[in-house]
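Appendix B. One record, verbatim.
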Amino acid sequence: MEGLLDFVLRDILTRVGGIDRCVSEFIRVTDQLLPERVFTRIVPELYNGGRTFAGVPVRAQLLGSDPVCLAENAARLASLGPEGIDLNFGCPANVVNRHGGGASLLKEPETIHAIVTAVRRAVPAHMPVSAKMRLGYLDDSLAVDCALAMASGGASELVVHARTKAQAYRPPAYWERIADIRTAVTIPVIANGEIWTVDDARACRLASGCDLLMIGRGAVVDPGLGLAIKADMTGVGTTAVSWPSLIPLIADFWHIVCIRLDHRSRAGRLKQWLNFLRRRFPEAEVAYQTLKITNDVAVIDQWLADTLRTQGGMCRIVTAARGAGT
């Protein structure tokens, strides 16, 4: 989820709990061997043993269409110690698909097979290589063929977003088609798409037959969604995360953003997350309306300090000597 679920949100959301593994935003591979700094910039968890600070494993995701170049980059990436490598065959963005990447490859099962095979051979045998796909490009007629191409190429696991590229993110998600893929392959299949609530998770598991789920935007909207889904599945644990409990994490998010990101991006990143959170929390709507027209760091610092104080939390904002971003 380029531009949204980056290392900052991975850090914060995995502190909440309920998440067993993360996948990074895609690292675009074209026609060259990328320097190590590109991998570590997008996946700084590589400096922490391939895990978030909460200890959750992160698989680094590659996107491209050239089997040889992807394999070379996968080998270099593997040397940096990620918890696994994921291959993107699902991105619906037009700019990606125009250049033969992402979901556009779902028209070419043979190319998919060549990519997965090349990457699997290029990285150590102990390192998982997984793949993410959509149901297809314009339609889902090649869904099973593509899944079989990934599995036969050596993918150890498959995530299926239950829509085509043409369907983008429009509801509904066609979870029942994941069941067809799950029947066809022998590797684990993870269901993804349109999981916003515990009820959605229940319905997805029933329709897809999958016990494993991937959540994306749903976790950004409701950071406690993973915990709630696990509690529903096991009958044990937390069923919701409250707004007051999120405030210290929002403060930490802002602190990390101010240290690690360019000053021009900072306020926008906080407002972006609040924009998602307001779909779940009425208090986030108030916060968003309060901050939406400001880019002033001092104003945001003061809002967070006041909010933490009224919520009984402890302010952890550092207002002096902020980094310029790395």
